[in-house]
Write a structure and sequence with these properties.
The protein is mainly alpha-helical. It has one domain. It is 67% helix and 5% strand. It contains 10 helices and 2 strands, in the order αααβααααβααα. A two-stranded antiparallel ribbon has the order 1-2. α5 packs antiparallel against α6 and α5 packs antiparallel against α7. The longest helix is centred in the middle third of the chain and has 22 residues. It is elongated, with a radius of gyration of 19 Å. The N and C termini lie far apart (44 Å).
């Protein structure tokens, strides 16, 4: 029982928490760089609510039984049963945490995108000018959110910049 708890805690700590803990790792979950999601005429309030709820849905994705979780379970077992430094190195080579986190992030990003699609959002590509403007706005700032909403709610932007796979 204790071994299962240790493995479960290791998997949870190495798959979920790092994905959500830092701005640098947030990119593992959010949609692709230079793309965004929009819905013509969406209010700022609905836009924020949908983004928040879909983000929480993605963050709550059950990763147990997925390939990255299974790889980390195997690595944690190897580390727990280690006979020396070489076993730890081998475990980390077989299941590098950064690779597994990226794989888990991809699963969570797909969940985020499914949620947005289910709510009527479509993906669109930012123009170079829009992407440049976005880079000048601090991540998480009200100005950045308002700028993205302006683009995301504009039917002309969505029609002209929509991505095929949305």
């Amino acid at each position: 029982m204790r071994r299962t708890l240790v493995i479960s805690a290791f998997v949870a700590a190495t798959t979920a928490f790092p994905l959500l803990a830092s701005p640098a790792s947030a990119g593992r979950v959010r949609p692709e760089y230079q793309t965004s999601w929009g819905k013509a005429g969406v209010s700022l309030e609905e836009y924020w609510i949908d983004a928040s709820e879909c983000g929480h849905t993605a963050a709550a994705t059950d990763l147990s039984g997925t390939a990255p979780a299974e790889a980390l379970v195997l690595a944690s077992r190897m580390i727990t049963n280690q006979n020396g430094y070489d076993d730890v190195e081998r475990a980390l080579r077989l299941a590098p945490p950064d690779v597994q986190w990226n794989r888990a992030g991809t699963i969570m990003r797909h969940e985020l995108e499914r949620c947005l699609t289910d709510r009527g959002y479509t993906r669109f590509r930012l123009t170079k000018g829009q992407a440049h403007q976005l880079k000048t706005l601090a991540v998480g700032s009200l100005e950045r959110r308002k700028y993205l909403h302006k683009l995301a709610s504009d039917p002309a932007v969505l029609a002209g910049q929509a991505l095929e796979d949305s």
